[in-house]
Amino acid sequence: NSIIRTEKLTKSYGRGAAATHALRGVDLEIPRGSFTAIVGPSGHGKSTLMHLLGALDRPSSGTVHLDGTDLGKLDSAGLARFRGRKIGFVFQFFNLLRGLSAAENVETAMMLSGAPPSRQAERARELLALVGLAEKAGSRPGELSGGQQQRVAIARALANDPEILMMDEPTGNLDSAAEEEIMQILLDLHSQGKTVIVVTHNPDIARRAQAVIQVQDGQIRA
Ligand code: ADP
Ligand code: ADP
């Protein structure tokens, strides 16, 4: 029961002799509800792979099936809708809106949900409580530590209750205590049934993942 399946996936940037072949034929399956780490040296295609798995970008060739849907069959609007429903993203550099409170940052991700504003506010508080930040709902990113900002980013990624949480180096800028807090949240989300996919250089995260995908030279090494 795979939630993601790829076949002969390639991705090149640029053309001709100057092209970078970032992915060179990737076949993989990610089981529903698993905790998967994507590891490998810098510049070998991990982020590119995550972008294709997450429907943020399209492959040069090959296919991605996400929850049974061939992403190549969707137009741009369809792809964006599908991504918004299925996947929550967390990036290394939090990408929070500086002028908004933690709660407002989470609420902005719900604007397209059609839920009434009062329900959105309530849900934002619930999600901030889930990541241990109930008391910081009114704080702006500048008033929070790096680890707290990353927890807001995780709450925001969960706003539309996605089945899959995808993260690119979520602990890249954090000290080890903050990193451990993030790791605990990811393990909790996994135990609640989310599919968690993390691109990481962090051996602690890779060691605690259920499955590790090693990317080297644009291919899966193991
Ligand atoms: P990793 O995440 O493992 O560091 P990336 O997927 O970011 O690797 O990059 C793989 C290769 O593709 C690298 O050579 C990188 O420079 C190149 N690359 C990534 N994104 C782009 C882009 N938008 N345009 C051109 N080259 C890119
Ligand atoms: P990381 O390698 O830490 O995952 P990013 O995801 O921010 O870094 O960027 C992906 C990789 O693609 C980096 O190695 C970056 O240098 C490269 N890259 C991004 N955009 C371009 C671009 N327009 N041209 C060339 N390389 C790019």
TrEMBL record:
It comes from Desulfuromonas versatilis. The keyword Transport applies. GO terms for molecular function: ATP binding. This is ABC transporter ATP-binding protein. Keywords: ATP-binding, Nucleotide-binding, Transport. InterPro entries: AAA+_ATPase, ABC_transporter-like_ATP-bd, ABC_transporter-like_CS, ABC_transpr_LolD-like, MacB-like_ATP-bd, P-loop_NTPase. PANTHER family: ABC TRANSPORTER ABCH.1, IMPORT ATP-BINDING PROTEIN. The keyword tRNA processing does not apply. Residues 4-222 form the ABC transporter domain. The lineage of its organism: Bacteria, Pseudomonadati, Thermodesulfobacteriota, Desulfuromonadia, Desulfuromonadales. CDD domains: ABC_MJ0796_LolCDE_FtsE (cd03255).
